[in-house]
Amino acid sequence: MSNIPTEIPSLGLNDGNSIPMLSFGTGTAWYKSSANTKVDRELVESIKTAIKMGYYHLDAAEVYGTEPEVGMAISESKIAREKLFVTTKVINGIKDIPKAFQASLEKLKLDYVDLYLIHAPFFAQSDADLQAAWAAMEQIQQSGKAKSIGVSNYSTLKTAKTVPSINQIEYHPYLQHPELIAFHKKHNIATAAYGPLTAVTKAKPGPVAGYMKLLAEKYYVSEGEIALRWCIDQDIVAVTTSRREERLSDYLRAMAFKLTPKEIQDISQRGQEKHYRGFWQAKFDANDRS
């Protein structure tokens, strides 16, 4: 494992809290079906390894089925709770958010989470449903058991007493959400990216491939680290994961350099030449870039 002296930076949120800008995710590759209640020891050990490497931001969700593993890894790591930033999300239990939240806390073996998100808006039949869910989120934050609250895959402000601190969305050069990002900036809502490596993995080849390869050679890193740095240099939190310790170590190299403003712009411009959505395809029109 390489020795990376650079710590993962943090981003300030609109509620005064801060969020580490590189997160170890427990979805996608680690996802468990609701019928699978067996503990995934590989995941537990991977989380413990990630924590030792300095990945203090752990991203979980009710629907991933991995909250128990996150809780075990935290407990077995013997790390001070205040060093960690734990995110989880609600979707299955959206009709009773307080109950779902308490169940998540119990699985995580925690007294509080640092960030609690509504995982997606697709449960709602009307704006009233969205606002009722957000009101329940506000109450949870007021209880002190969730330091920050936010959304994923949408933004909502109507009747909101508390502006969401963050919106976690699929974000990469081939899905840049220009109008949504502008909305975030206008209302001081942070952006987190899931699928940040998409352009250099499952959406490859594409118009950014050759340029990102050149940048990887310039900075002596992989194209994956360029993809992560492109997010971080735009003040966007990157959520990624791997089963391989070596790859997690490599991702930390993205903390050791910065892209120039022109390089960031060049990746963005090339990315606009292609559209690719890797998640929630059934919920969006094929040409929807929002």
Descriptive report:
The chain has 290 residues and is of the alpha/beta class. It contains nine helices and ten strands. The strands form two sheets. Strands 3-4-5-6-7-8-9-10 form an eight-stranded parallel barrel, surrounded by five helices. The chain has a two-stranded antiparallel sheet with strand order 1-2. Strand 6, helix 4 and strand 7 (146-152) form a beta-alpha-beta unit. Helix 1 (41-53) crosses helix 2 (67-77), helix 2 (67-77) packs parallel to helix 3 and helix 6 (209-219) crosses helix 7. The longest helix has 17 residues, at 127-143. The mean pLDDT is 93.
The run of helices and strands is EEEHEHEHEHEEHEHHEHH
Described by the principal axes of the CA atoms, the overall outline is: globular
Whole-number average pLDDT? 93
Main beta-sheet strand count, sense and barrel state: 8 strands, parallel, barrel
How many separate helices?
A: 9
Structural class: alpha/beta
| Beta-strand proportion | 15-25%
| Main β-sheet, spatial strand arrangement | 3-4-5-6-7-8-9-10
Query: Which residues form runs of ≥5 with pLDDT under 50?
Result: none
Approximately how much helix is present in the residues? 25-40%
**Termini separation:** 39 Å
Radius of gyration: 18 Å
How many DSSP E strands? 10
